[in-house]
Amino acid sequence: MAQGIAKAPLPDQRNLAWYVDKTVQVLVFVGGISAILLILGIFVFITKEGMGFITQTLDIGEFFTSPNWRPTSENRPTYGALALIAGTASVTGLAMLVAVPFSLGAAIFIGEFATGKTREILKILVEMLAAIPSVVWGFIGLSIMNPLIIDLFNVPVGLNVLNSGLILGLMAAPIMTTLAEDALKAVPDGYREAAEAMGATRWQVIFRVVFPAAKNGLVAAVLLGVGRGFGETMAVLMASGHSINIPTSPFDSVRALTATIAAELGETAVGSDHYRALFTLGIFLFAITFLINLTADLVVRGPRKR
Amino acid sequence: MVTPTRDRQPKVQVRDLSIHYGGKAALAGATFEIHEHEIFGIIGPAGSGKTSFLRAMNRMDLFNPAMEVGGEISMDGKDVRKWKNVYALRRRIGVVFPLPVGLPMSIYENVALAPRLGGTRKRADLDVIVERCLTRAALWDEVKDRLDSLGSLLSGGQQQRLTIARALSQEPELLLLDEFSIAVDPVTTMKIEDVLKELRQELTIVLVTNLVQQARRLADRTAFFLTGELVEVAPTEDLFTGGASDERTTAYVEGRFG
């Protein structure tokens, strides 16, 4: 019997497990690296297509200050992106006015008040909302919101900043809700109990203790929503009216940066000035969303100085 | 050590208190009184219902839907479950949890939070409260030069004293301590114990502890809980000098089990 134990009949399972472990390590490494390579590849691609244009043809001053986007003009094409930037900014701004209170309210309800089944069902529903394709949102903007706005406000066209802002706000709210709720959930329950034990009411606990503790996560949720707003294409294309305009009221139609690329890229000759101008817009968008996401990331990590 | 407690008005009256968690009993049929200006010790091994009693006392049962409370706990003659505004009840009761909870704000704000919530706005008034509470919790000298640094950066023992200062900041009549020394070094524990002895002049203290000797050092009277049963309540000295009426109490305080 003793000999049987001393001489194990099979090699130790862990020898095999060691090879598996090493293989998985390599696979995971490749997976991680490929994400970085892909993002670098995209960056190189859009830069290559757009950069030559920026340095040779484009007047940077005109790009940022002129509202005239006329890349197809026969005698003198102009590439002023100001109206497009204003379009994107106004739609995103209005969207955030809608989405921030909406999503924070929903996150507070789901995270702090709802319990048990209610909470689980709400979370699933919110995540389902986040999965609705943007073209469906655009469709709602086009076929439901458009006549509604025309009737309610007695304006000739219902495809405008108001329409696309509301649509974009509703679109961004679910993902912001989910992120904000995660931030609230990361606050230890001990904080809530300690504050309530001091006689703080539920609202006092939320505003004085939970919000300050979850501040970084909440700001990140909002910033990622802003990033989503800047990058959204289809819904904005369908609901904004797609006319070049610096808006002075919510009922003005506008055109967004993303929508411009989507609408025009198909009809340009590869390598033409127009084609490369659209890539310049792409570089600009890429830079903006990168900055927003980077800010969100830095905010989440928080200032660790003290 | 033994002070005459008979003639004092009971601060807290517990009658036939039973606590269940989803049908499972944590405390059954406990009846006892806590007198004004005494330190009332509660000893017993884990799972004996000590913490459940504290949670029922300041209505923290509301946090846990599975927790059912039967019987009666009265403070100054009024059943705690008859308070419509539970926050007004909790304002009168300070709680110190086993693990210190330094709220994610400055030391100053930790102590000023409750007065602020109560409506005290003037910086000068808050300064007075903060200094007094931190002094009473024996922490002032260590932190007076860095009141603006984060409360959660203090050491465990300091955080626990910060928690006590915070509990005192709303002038409670009753202070509930739940195994406060579990994450605190012995030197700090003795400091806090001295503080508690001082505080007895001003308020009533319920001290839940699983350190039998701590109850002996501090408590005027002590209750022994065992697996959801209140075995007995007696002047602390009696329990430790062979005066316990139940054999199990004697066995526990002598360290033969638990």
Task: Describe the model.
The complex is a heterodimer of chains A (306) and B (258). Chain A has a domain at 82-258 and 289-301: MetI-like (MetI-like fold, Orthogonal Bundle). In chain A, helix 2 crosses helix 12, helix 4 (82-113) packs parallel to helix 7 (161-185) and helix 8 (189-197) packs antiparallel against helix 9. Chain A has twelve helices and two strands; from the N terminus they run αααββααααααααα. The longest helix of chain A is centred in the first third of the chain and has 44 residues, at 13-56. With 306 residues, chain A is mainly α. Chain B is of the alpha/beta class and 258 residues long. Chain B has a domain at 9-90 and 218-258: P-loop containing nucleotide triphosphate hydrolases (Rossmann fold), CATH 3.40.50.300. In chain B, the strands form two sheets. Chain B has a six-stranded mixed sheet, sandwiched between helices. Chain B has a four-stranded antiparallel sheet with strand order 2-1-4-5, with helices on one face.
Tags for this model:
heterodimer, A: 306 residues, mainly alpha, MetI-like fold, two-stranded antiparallel sheet, 12 helices, 75% helix, B: 258 residues, alpha/beta, Rossmann fold, six-stranded mixed β-sheet, four-stranded antiparallel β-sheet, 10 helices, globular
Indicate the topology.
The complex is a heterodimer of chains A (306) and B (258).
Chain A (H helix, E strand, L loop, with lengths): L1 H5 L6 H44 L3 H6 L3 E2 L7 E2 L2 H32 L2 H15 L3 H20 L7 H25 L3 H9 L4 H30 L2 H6 L17 H8 L8 H29 L5
Antiparallel strand pairs in A: 1-2
Helix pairs in contact in A: 2-12, 4-7, 4-9, 5-7, 6-7, 7-9, 8-9, 9-12, 11-12
Chain B lengths: L9 E12 L2 E12 L3 E5 L6 H8 L9 E9 L2 E2 L6 H6 L1 E4 L10 H12 L4 H14 L3 H4 L12 H13 L5 E5 L7 H14 L4 E5 L3 H7 L2 E6 L2 E7 H5 L6 H7 L5
Parallel strand pairs in B: 3-8, 3-9, 6-7, 7-8
Antiparallel strand pairs in B: 1-2, 1-4, 4-5, 9-10
Helix pairs in contact in B: 3-4, 3-6, 4-6
